[in-house]
Amino acid sequence: MTLTVGIIGAGRIGKIHLDNLQGIQQVRVKSVSDVAIPHLESWAVEKQIEVLTTNYHDILNDPEIDAVFICSPTNTHATLIKEAAAAGKHIFCEKPVSFTVEETEEALEAVKKAGVKLQVGFNRRFDSNFRKIRQLVQEGQIGNPHLLRITSRDPEPPNVNYVKSSGGLFMDMTIHDFDMARYIMGSEVVEVFAKGAVLVDPAIGEAGDIDTAIITLKFANGALGVIENSRRAAYGYDQRLEVFGDKGAAHADNNRANTVEVSTAEHVSKEKPLYFFLERYTQAYIDEVKEFAASILENKPVMCDGFDGMQAERIAKAARQSLETGAPVKLEQVGHSASIY
Prior knowledge:
This protein has about 350 residues and is an alpha/beta fold. About 35% of the residues lie in helices and about 25% in strands. The strands form three sheets. A seven-stranded mixed beta sheet has the order 12-11-7-10-9-8-15. Strands 3-2-1-4-5-6 form a six-stranded parallel beta sheet, sandwiched between helices. A hairpin with a 4-residue loop joins β13 (about 260-265) and β14 (about 270). α1 crosses α12 and α9 packs across α13. The longest helix has 20 residues, at about 305-325. The protein is globular.
């Protein structure tokens, strides 16, 4: 069996997914739609794309297409999910599903009604280091988890225009960490308390956002979590995670170009972390599309479904509310907590 795919949105992430899909033997990428066709024609020829179009309906109306990848701007995601579900297509959608709980609920209801699969693009779930820590927690090797610490710092801030349209730090950056917190701990977040500052770029503050944050989480199982974010780490992409429990701890360090450590009388040194997410999560991006394809070809559940996407969005909204009010926010105050799947 061959899985025939169409990609909606051929920006950076759309092109990454196309390359990774073309490396899967049982997948055929037939069509790509994007509004910037003149800039994509030579690329489409190079990648042997059969259909290049400005109208995504050409993909949704194609009976050969089994699944679509939604890689367009966030404000289009919910509409595209609903239309793709109505067309009977399985769906891979980049995070977040939408900027509002109501829109996300509508999209997930459409998926449920159509009986198609939806995977949300939280690629860090597929990182081998984080998967190992989740396994250790699930197996009880560190005992009952008490504390989670996630460090997530970008090497440089995005441009201000991106900040204005992305939903802000919590929705476009920390949302990965919110999903990772649920994934690792195997427990729902029930309360969020956030503090933030503008310490990297004043223009980010002028756009109504923050660039530095600390978020504390309380989980349903009683455990506590701390996430720290910065839009700029001078030394590279800083991605670390630790879980502490009553039987021990598990820690995932940064990925580096090599693991050599040099010790001399003058200094001890090792390589800086890999520079950004494309290098750090190369294999995770490959594995997430492989598993999405396998979920369809083998008719098994996706690893990160619409409910997971919804919960990460609700935590992000709770964090923003906490930042604005200066008080902890219970997740039950943000949308609905029950799965609609």
